[in-house]
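Protein in question kept in full:
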Amino acid sequence: MNNKLKRKSISTQFILLASILLLAFAAGSTVLVVRQKEITADYAQYRAQVREKAQLLSTIDKSMNKAFLQARGFIAFDSEDMYNEAASQQKIIEENLDRLSGLAADRRERTLVNEATVMLNTYFNQTLPYFKDIYDKKGIEGVRSSPERKAASKSIEQMQKELDDYQNELTKDLNTQYDDTSSDMQKSQTFFILFLAFTVVILLLLTRVLLNKFVKPLSQLAYTASEIAAGKEMPMTFDEHRRDEIGMLSQAFYKMVSTLQNNEQELTAQNEELIAQQDELHSQQDELQHALELTKEREGELELRNLFVHGLTNSLHKQEVLTSAVTNMSRVMKADHGFIMLADEKTHASFGLSSSSVQQMVANLHNNYVDHVQKTKKCMVVKRECIENERLYHQQTFYLYDVIVPVLSSQGDMLAYMFYSRYADEYTDHELQTFEILAKQITIALEKIYIYEESEHDRLLSQDILNSIQEGMQLVDTSGTILQVNTKISELFQYEHQSGLLQLSRDQWLDALSQKVENIQQLRQYVEAICKGEQVEKSFVYYLYTEGKRKVIKVYSEYVYRNRQMFGVLFVHRDITKEFEVDQMKSEFVSTVSHELRTPLASVLGFTELMLNKTLKEERQKKYLTTIYQEAQRLTSLINDFLDVQRMEAGKQTYDKKYQDILPLIKQVIEVQKIQTSKHEFDMISDQEHFTVMGDKDKLLQLFNNVISNAVKYSPDGGNVTVKVYQKEHAVYIDIQDEGIGIPSEALGQLFTKFYRVDNSDMRKIGGTGLGLAIVKEIVKAHGGDITVQSEWKKGTTFTVVLPLLYEVQYDEEMISTNDNRKSVVIVEDDKSLATLLQVELKESGFHVRYFNNGEDALNSIHQQKPEVVVLDIMLGENKLDGWDVLRQLKENTETEKIPILISSALDERSKGLELGVCEFLIKPYQPSKLSKTILQLLLKKQEHEGEIMIPSDKEE
């Protein structure tokens, strides 16, 4: 019984210890597994709540931004749809706030949700309708000037900041929770490892006890058994307490061995189970690592989006914005290639494409896919098989996914097209929505650029307009600091660039100007008074500019207002040097004219009074009357000069130009001058007998009379007056040379200016109005010529008149051809010499010419036999009908209204002629060949219009 109890006791102990060890190991493993699952579940639940809150906050933020942007768009673009779109966001925000309120975990979150709800209700129910009402009544300026605008913007910005802070705190809490979860997992794993180590130690200790308690006796027993099996007798030494049990073990040796093997297998199985549990722990760790990688990937996507938005807002240059947009969009959407082009097809950018691919893209931009996107205004995805050069080294079928994304303006118009391609992976619906969202960001950036370009264009246009003004413009603020200038004022200050004057204070620019101005103190006082808003005696001030050429500058000012408040002063610096000089000349002219008029009037009145009050002899009466007549002639000449100047300035001076030989005219003037002077000798030298020009006889006489009389007048001591007439090339030159007092060199440039007289005592003694040479200049100019002067002080002066020379043609009626096969031309001209010249030219050009010197005969002939062209002079001498009458009668008759009419006149009334239906207008003098060419062109145009092209017969040699 004792042996049985002994054996049972050993088995029980062994089993009890093994059971306790296994139970402890199983309990520890179970606790570890359960704990890790609880940690993982808690973290997953918390992360889900945080992600849901973050999603709600993101939706609220997007809806708020959309509402604010649409509200601002309504004010900027006056779009009622944008206002309604902004108001519609209220419902979305309230729904998300309600969901967020249900997820609020603490008092702070509930308070934030309540504050957001109150603020948004105030914005949508009060602020937004309030600003809409202001905008409807006062427009955008009313909104800008509203005192509530800043408060509303500040409250909106504060709420957005609180929401952003809350979202950042959620992210921070999630990161903290993740760190805590990782820490707990590591602690749990550490505990398991320690527990496993403790179990191994216990197992080792137990093994040692077993070795000491059982193995040694068993070894002895085995040795004894072996020895016994070998036939040897071994003394048996057993513990008295274990004798029966060792004997039992000896008898059950092989059974014990089997039992040990089974125990070993069981331990191996348990070990494998532990390894499996460890693998499960590693799997859970991998899941956590994957979640961390997803979080990092999401962070990278957000960073790419931030780069995308930053690239759009960081520049106002279209090319830079497009390049940034296509590059960052390709990175965000993981596209391999990208291309964007504006709708105007001028600006584009690409990503991952070669230059040849870009050119191919531009050339084939318009296709069915693009047309479809343009109509639907939605993204379109095209799946296609890669072509050979896109497969690289791949042999199998390989697909490429292309997406076409429209970029629409706020009005729905197409701003740009985007094309993106990538291999293998198809675009998801979420990615297409992302494309559309990011395309709206590009729309905002492009519209901002367009607004900037328009404002920059307006600014440059305003500056160009200011620069084109020939007066110095200078805008300053109320303190006198320069805000804006134009080119003229920069030249006045001698600044190469306008920017150098900007932001100069009042003292700085006045000091800079003081170095170039004489009476700077008056200007300074005027500027200071105007800037302070004080009343000034005069609305302008003058100053003398001494730098370089002396100028007289007039400065006046205007206050500039913005929103009914003065913010600056516009100073205008006007160069009145010419007006000042003209005023001086006119003042001098008035005194001169007063003297010139009073002198003959005094003679007329004096001699008339003598004749009325005294009885005079017939000889003395005749002498007095002759004096009165001469003074009256002098007055008439002065008055005629005044009238000529007035007509020339008004452009109403007319000239009756005809072929004139100038030699008889010059001789006539010289004969008159010989009668009026006895101190001078006149010589006329000519290298030809005739010099024919096209001119007005009376005006040419006035021309030569003024120049020759000046030669006499400014030779008070007498001397020779020599007139040389000679030809040079195609012009006639007339030199009038005297031996008088001459003209100072500084006065030569202004000699032909009206009212100008040389400022010296010798000249003033001679007198005069200063109009004679001005009239001469106008007459020469009207005749297509020129006049120059050369003079040496105290030695004499030479005036040279140059007139275009013509050659007179002998008139012969038999030269007119009567060949009916030639095109007929009618010439109506009262100048027989000119008519003959034109007849010869037209006859040699192959025309049949009929000539008439009056309108009546011409009309009768034209009605009897219609010509191809009519060459008509406006002034027809003393005839009843002038050229205008002939023209009207021809145009009023249905049979002759389509005959081309060409005006040949010395009067420049082109606009009147064209209104009456004239085809061409030639101003005399002109080369006769020009008339032939003009008639040929008229006939060609007429015949091309009628369907046939004909020309006159060959020109006779």
User: Anything to note?
Assistant: Residues 148-229 form the longest helix (82 residues). The chain has 25 helices and 22 strands.
